[in-house]
Amino acid sequence: MSPAARTDPVLTDRLLLTPIGVQHVDELAILHQEPLVDHWTGPWTPALVRTWVNGMAERWAVDGVGKWIAHDRSTGVLVGRGGLSRMVIGDEAVLEVGWAVRDTSTGNGYATEIGRAALAWAATFSPEVPVVAFTEVHNAASVAVMRRLGLRRSGVIHREGLVAGRPGLHARAPFVLYRQDVAGPGRA
Question: Which ranges form a coiled coil (predicted)?
Answer without folding.
Answer: none
